[in-house]
Specification:
- InterPro entries: DUF6316 (IPR045630).
- By secondary structure, the chain is α+β, with helices and mostly antiparallel strands.
- It has a domain of 45 residues.
- It contains 2 helices and 3 strands.
- Strands 1-2-3 form a 3-stranded antiparallel beta sheet, covered by helices on one side.
- A hairpin with a 2-residue loop joins strand 1 and strand 2.
Length: 76
């Protein structure tokens, strides 16, 4: 993980982790809100799942609906 500020950021660099992780050869992604989605067959599929998740999240009005959307997106 890069230890530099992102473009346009200043100040102390916050702790960052990779959004993707694997467990027993299955892949998952994490969100800042603490939501984990998966399993996916491989990291590329997890990345596609994250892109879809972010597209849907951008369509939601701000407020309490993000939790409902995240629970609906969970893959078992």
């Amino acid at each position: 993980m890069a230890m530099d500020n992102r473009n346009g950021e200043g100040g102390v660099v916050p702790f960052r982790t990779d959004r993707f992780f694997s467990v027993s050869e299955k892949w998952y992604f994490s969100t800042r809100e603490g939501f984990d989605s998966g399993p996916y067959a491989n990291k590329d599929r997890a990345a596609e799942g994250l892109r879809r998740f972010l597209k849907v999240a951008q369509l939601l009005p701000s407020g309490g609906q993000i939790g409902t959307m995240m629970r609906a997106h969970r893959v078992y």
